[in-house]
Amino acid sequence: MPDIDQTDLEILRLLQHNAELTNKEISAKLHKSVAAVHERVRRLKEQGYIKRVVAILDRKKIDRSLIAFSHVLLKDHSANTLSSFEKEVIRFPEVMECFQMTGTFDFILRIATADMDAYHVFYRKLATLPNITTVQSFFVLSETKSDTAYPL
Question: How far apart are the first and last CA of the chain?
Answer without folding.
Answer: 10
